[in-house]
């Protein structure tokens, strides 16, 4: 068993299935040497199509030199285009394309100045030793920058082909040129065999294949002879490269068919020859590689066969890429009419040119201008008779009949099932068809439909991906937003439960105090005071409610106690405002009297509201309120007890009376000590701040009240003696509050210590404390008010500020108690 | 008499065995999701346009699996409808949309009129519009599915739905054979 290379060396050839022998008609153009036509006035260079990343480097009106790149691009697949002549860019616009569709594509139009000034990068031919020294990257870069595409017709970028992923063992140089009429490769091989071989040497340097086969059909004996001589002259080892003459058969020049003929191997469906370790390059491409590497000459011209009976001077011409086809016609004595067909490529695989203004492209190897005799009038398509000739002729071993049925019925997926994509569109089936069915055209339609479908599917898939990722993104954004909001809420909550809350309350109190001060200063009109009073009332009420709620929902003793204490504080505070304000009634100013009267009215109203079962016998307002509160409390306690099914409900009332005495004994002493401390403090403060403005006073006085409160400063009796009179009222309010608080605390302690209370019931004790606190605070507040009134009748304003401060305090307490409730609930 | 009990017992045992077997198989080889939904969704054009009345292609695919009509997808056209009919085993029905809406269109923004409000960007289900606040927006036409959803929100009506032009890439071959097949050996060459 011989190895593949031994067989190749022996010259063994394999047969391909199918194939035809169409009339060659090559003699029309093959006898004359490659000529040049007079340069055209304009050249049209289509710039790469959308999808290729590139940018134009020239502008309209810019002068360009021959061989200058018109585009600049990045990426491995990028292939530049060059201007074939020197001159000026006169337009960059859509021009008809050299394509079966004739659709316009973006093109640069170059006006030829006929100077042929070369761009500076093109240099005289290098010595072969210089090229040997070049590394592969430099060579590939030169090939890419020269814009070399496969010149056989497919125009695939050559530098990609020359950088295969797998190792290339066999290099095939395709000089088969099996299509009828075309002789451009034939003439090129005859006239430029040395350059072609030098191009092959460069490919050998790049890929170092084990064998190089130059395949030429046996109808081109001169070409094969010339190539043999050139090979012998070259530096390539004689046992490495050889010229193989293959029998003439259409379509031997197809890449896959040629591989099959030379190696007997079939390129699997959907793969490329490189996967078999084989690379096929056209002879024209080899020539272009030589030019690019040795002279840095870009691919700006190629050999084109102009043939057919309609052309007066049939032959091969060096045509600059971008030459308009209609320009050629005038210079080659075109005999036909404007509506006679022009075919780009050979008769088997070419296409009709829809627009004669289209330019010559890199893949244009032939322009066929046939007469009416050469092409008969279109014959009507007959029904398929199932003769099977097409299947015999097919070189790809497909079933053209089946493909035809499905393509005609537009069942493209079924046609695809018959390996439609392996069809090379060689046209053998159409050629042999006795019914004149244009089979290849059907396949082309089906192929493009499948291509569009595949493209749409791909787009749909991408669209879905984008849609999915967008949906995901939006969801994530939403979640992040919610998370953030939650965090902020938590933070706020945490801040509220910490000391920040105090700060907020303080700030609020300050604002209120200021407002109150300005109010009194400006007009001190009754409605505003009423409002303030109403607010205080509402707050107290609200607190009571909350506390009640807590009591109902959380019936443990401790919580109830705490709630009751809070309630008591708030109530007391509300009341303590009144005594502080009431002194105003006795001031000489009639306006102040009015204000005071309004306040009193408001108080009376409030008392009515809070204490619904008011007793008519009570003389003073304070007494009334206190009585009402006590009553309400007793009632509530009784209720709570009832709900707990306790039988000690009757005992609640006596305890109410009994408790105050015991507490007040302790209370008196403590209050005195605290009062002394407060006095000292107030004095010091007053001295320090005597020069302060009123507003500042309001603030500081509030602070002092706070301090007093914090220090559990309990007494008010001696405060009136301090020289700083303006602070008295305020401090008094704060003190009253503090006292109430302390009392409540004490009563709580008492409750815990007193065994009698435990037997009576858990709810009664705090209520006792509260009642006591209420009574006491009322008393002290009254006394304070009296004192304030005596000492400074002009200081009503200050008293009012104090009232405001007290209000703020009440508010804060409300919040605190609410918080306590919350915590209890938690 | 005993034979009857044996038979009953035997059948009961068999029933239990097979029941257990079936139950096991149902658990072990459980089919996750509805494969018909996946297939229907694969056929839909994924424009996410909502012209079918469902908020996207997947919901419509699910609705089709539940017996919804197959002719409600204008972007898919008749081809999609026929494939869906084949998949669901129902008769093809003419599309609810008119022929005009079946032409593939993509959105274009008249860029000098765009005020940069980003409303179209928010409306685009497939992220095919590029731009940012107070900057000109533009449609990435390759990504545009022609769903129409961006036209409505535009406050200055600067979005046009234009039919996709034919290019060399998407051109469909016409049946215009080159009648050179009559060349015979005796023709003048």
Automatic annotation (TrEMBL), chain B:
Kindly list the positions annotated as binding [4Fe-4S] cluster 2.
114, 117, 120, 154
Keyword Electron transport found = yes
Instruction: Output the Gene Ontology cellular-component terms.
Output: plasma membrane
A single BP term in Gene Ontology:
electron transport chain
Q: Where in the cell is it found?
A: Cell inner membrane
Cofactor note text: Binds 3 [4Fe-4S] clusters.
Task: Name the enzyme's class.
Answer: translocase
Residue stretches making up the 4Fe-4S ferredoxin-type domain: 105-134, 135-164
**Which keywords does this Swiss-Prot/TrEMBL entry list?**
4Fe-4S, Cell inner membrane, Cell membrane, Electron transport, Iron, Iron-sulfur, Membrane, Metal-binding, Repeat, Translocase, Transport
Stretches assigned to the 4Fe-4S domain? 32-90
Q: Write down the EC number.
A: 7.-.-.-
Where along the chain is [4Fe-4S] cluster 3 bound?
A: 124, 144, 147, 150
- Detail which positions bind [4Fe-4S] cluster 1: 49, 52, 57, 73
The terms under GO molecular function for this entry are:
4 iron, 4 sulfur cluster binding; electron transfer activity; metal ion binding
Q: Which cofactor does it need?
A: [4Fe-4S] cluster
Region forming the signal peptide: none
Top-level lineage group: Bacteria
Does Lyase appear among the keywords?
no
Q: Where is the segment annotated Hydrophobic?
A: 1-26
Family that this chain belongs to: Belongs to the 4Fe4S bacterial-type ferredoxin family. RnfB subfamily.
Quaternary form?
A: The complex is composed of six subunits: RnfA, RnfB, RnfC, RnfD, RnfE and RnfG.
Primary role? Part of a membrane-bound complex that couples electron transfer with translocation of ions across the membrane.
Full protein name:
Ion-translocating oxidoreductase complex subunit B
The protein's organism comes out as Shewanella colwelliana (Alteromonas colwelliana)
């Amino acid at each position: 068993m011989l190895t593949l290379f031994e067989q190749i060396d022996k010259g063994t050839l394999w047969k391909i299935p199918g194939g035809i022998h169409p009339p060659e008609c090559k003699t029309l153009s093959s006898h004359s040497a490659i000529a040049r036509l007079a340069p055209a006035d304009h050249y049209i260079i289509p710039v790469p199509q959308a999808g290729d990343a590139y940018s134009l480097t020239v502008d309209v009106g810019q002068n360009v030199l021959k061989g200058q790149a018109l585009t600049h691009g990045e990426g491995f697949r990028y292939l530049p285009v060059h201007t074939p002549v020197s001159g000026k860019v006169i337009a960059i616009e859509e021009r008809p394309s050299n394509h079966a569709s004739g659709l316009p594509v973006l093109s640069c139009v170059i006006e030829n100045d006929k100077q042929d000034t070369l761009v500076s990068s093109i240099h005289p031919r290098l010595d072969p030793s210089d090229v040997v020294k070049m590394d592969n990257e430099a060579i590939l870069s030169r090939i890419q920058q020269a814009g070399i595409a496969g010149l056989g017709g497919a125009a695939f970028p050559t530098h990609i082909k020359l950088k295969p992923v797998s190792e290339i063992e066999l290099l095939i140089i395709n000089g088969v040129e099996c299509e009828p009429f075309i002789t451009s490769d034939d003439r090129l091989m005859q006239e430029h065999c040395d350059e072609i071989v030098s191009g092959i040497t460069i490919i050998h340097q790049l890929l170092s294949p084990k064998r190089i086969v130059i395949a030429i059909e046996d109808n081109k004996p001169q070409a094969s002879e010339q190539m043999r001589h050139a090979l012998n002259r070259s530096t390539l080892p004689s046992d490495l490269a050889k010229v193989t003459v293959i029998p003439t058969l259409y379509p031997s020049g197809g890449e896959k068919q040629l591989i099959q003929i030379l190696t007997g191997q079939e390129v699997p469906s959907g793969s490329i020859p490189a996967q078999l370790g084989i690379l096929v390059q056209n002879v024209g491409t080899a020539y272009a590689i030589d030019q690019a590497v040795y002279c840095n000459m870009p691919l700006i011209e190629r050999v084109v066969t102009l043939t057919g009976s309609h052309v007066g001077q049939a032959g091969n011409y060096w045509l600059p890429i971008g030459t308009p086809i209609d320009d050629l016609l005038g210079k080659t004595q075109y005999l036909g009419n404007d509506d006679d067909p022009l075919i780009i490529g050979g008769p088997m695989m070419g296409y009709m040119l829809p627009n004669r203004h289209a330019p010559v492209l890199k893949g244009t190897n032939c322009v066929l201008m046939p007469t009416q005799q050469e092409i008969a009038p279109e014959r009507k398509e007959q029904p398929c008779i199932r003769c099977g000739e097409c299947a015999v002729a097919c070189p790809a071993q497909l079933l053209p009949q089946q493909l035809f049925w499905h393509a005609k019925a537009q069942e493209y997926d079924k046609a695809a099932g018959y390996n439609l994509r392996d069809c090379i569109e060689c046209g053998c089936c159409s050629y042999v068809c006795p019914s004149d069915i244009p089979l290849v055209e059907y396949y082309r339609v089906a192929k493009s439909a499948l291509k569009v479908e595949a493209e749409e599917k791909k787009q749909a898939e991408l669209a879905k991906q984008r849609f999915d990722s967008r949906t995901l993104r939006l969801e994530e954004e939403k979640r992040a937003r919610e998370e953030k909001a939650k965090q902020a809420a938590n933070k706020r909550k945490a801040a509220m439960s910490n000391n920040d809350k105090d700060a907020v309350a303080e700030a609020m109190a300050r604002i209120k105090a200021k407002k109150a001060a300005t109010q009194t200063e400006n007009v001190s009109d009754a409605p505003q005071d009423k409002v303030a009073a109403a607010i205080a009332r509402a707050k107290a009420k609200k607190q009571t409610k909350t506390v009640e709620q807590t009591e109902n929902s959380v019936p443990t003793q401790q919580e109830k106690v705490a709630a009751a204490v809070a309630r008591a504080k708030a109530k007391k505070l509300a009341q303590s405002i009144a005594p502080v304000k009431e002194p105003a009634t006795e001031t000489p100013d009639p306006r102040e009297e009015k204000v005071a009267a309004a306040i009193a009215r408001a108080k009376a109203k409030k008392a009515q509201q809070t204490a619904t079962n008011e007793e008519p016998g009570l003389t003073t307002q304070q007494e009334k309120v206190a009585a009402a509160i006590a009553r309400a409390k007793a009632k509530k306690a009784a209720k709570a007890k009832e709900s707990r099914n306790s039988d000690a409900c009757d005992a609640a009332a006596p305890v109410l009376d009994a408790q105050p005495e015991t507490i007040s004994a302790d209370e008196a002493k403590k209050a005195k000590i605290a009062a002394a401390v407060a006095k000292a403090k107030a004095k010091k403060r007053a001295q320090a701040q005597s020069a302060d403005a009123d507003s500042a006073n309001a603030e500081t006085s509030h602070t002092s009240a706070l301090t007093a409160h914090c220090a559990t400063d309990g007494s008010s009796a001696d405060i009136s003696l301090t020289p700083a009179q303006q602070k008295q009222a305020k401090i008094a309010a704060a003190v009253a509050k503090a006292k109430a608080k302390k009392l409540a605390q004490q009563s709580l302690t008492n409750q815990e210590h007193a065994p009698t209370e435990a037997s009576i019931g858990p709810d009664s004790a705090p209520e006792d404390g509260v009642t006591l606190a209420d009574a006491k605070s009322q008393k002290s507040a009254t006394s304070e008010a009296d004192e304030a009134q005596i000492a400074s009748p002009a200081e009503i304003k200050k008293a009012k500020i104090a009232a405001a401060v007290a209000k703020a305090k009440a508010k804060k307490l409300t919040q605190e108690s609410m918080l306590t409730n919350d915590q209890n609930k938690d | 008499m005993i034979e009857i009990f044996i038979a009953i017992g035997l059948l009961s045992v068999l029933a239990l065995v097979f029941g257990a077997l079936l139950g096991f198989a149902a658990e072990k080889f459980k089919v996750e999701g509805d494969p018909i939904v996946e297939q229907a969704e694969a056929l839909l054009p994924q424009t996410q346009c909502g012209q079918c009345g469902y908020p996207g292609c997947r919901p419509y695919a699910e609705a089709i699996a539940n017996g919804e009509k197959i002719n409600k997808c204008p972007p898919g056209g008749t081809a999609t409808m026929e494939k869906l009919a084949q998949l669901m085993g129902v008769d093809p029905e003419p599309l609810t949309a008119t022929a005009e809406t079946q032409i593939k269109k993509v959105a274009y923004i008249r860029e000098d009129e765009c005020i940069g409000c980003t409303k179209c960007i928010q409306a685009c289900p497939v992220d095919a519009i590029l731009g940012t606040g107070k900057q000109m927006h533009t449609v990435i036409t390759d990504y545009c599915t022609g769903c129409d959803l961006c036209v409505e929100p535009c406050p200055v009506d600067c979005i046009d739905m234009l039919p996709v032009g034919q290019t060399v890439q998407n051109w469909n071959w016409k049946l215009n054979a080159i009648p050179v097949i009559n060349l015979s050996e005796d023709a003048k060459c």
